[in-house]
């Protein structure tokens, strides 16, 4: 895979240390957004082929922020040209500490209950299929998560229950690449890693419908 995307560097991750909303947004738009746009365009055909339908690229705009500067940013792929938040989707993004490559259903999506029911039905198979070093999270604003290998049967049951019952519940699963490792990856290597991760996460995406 040859691309004009050259990967991320320390200055990209340092954007999240810039104080103040305006200054951080300026740095983010200048430094990170063009790279996310490149990743989005580069991988759109692959993500569409995986999903079996056209997947459109959405780069986070952070338009609703009025005071607090963003602590992360991302590019998402979803099956709707107008938006992604109401749909199951794939994301690649950065916090100051790491890069993330995930499948996500956030609180605005009505697909949560469908995913929860399918996950419940296929739990054993899903637990077996996902790599130990993947992680689960139920809060897209929280950089922490629980490693797949640390998730107990009870943890999955809680997650499934919450997705069924709590309106604001959400779920993410995927890969975290620590900043120290991410900055060493070439653009090609990083895109390969994203592709592999999305292929592994595809069964979760399919469970959402």
UniProtKB/TrEMBL annotation:
<protein>
    <recommendedName>
        <fullName>UPF0637 protein BBD40_01240</fullName>
    </recommendedName>
</protein>
<dbReference type="Pfam" id="PF06335">
    <property type="entry name" value="DUF1054"/>
</dbReference>
<dbReference type="InterPro" id="IPR053707">
    <property type="entry name" value="UPF0637_domain_sf"/>
</dbReference>
<dbReference type="InterPro" id="IPR009403">
    <property type="entry name" value="UPF0637"/>
</dbReference>
<comment type="similarity">
    <text>Belongs to the UPF0637 family.</text>
</comment>
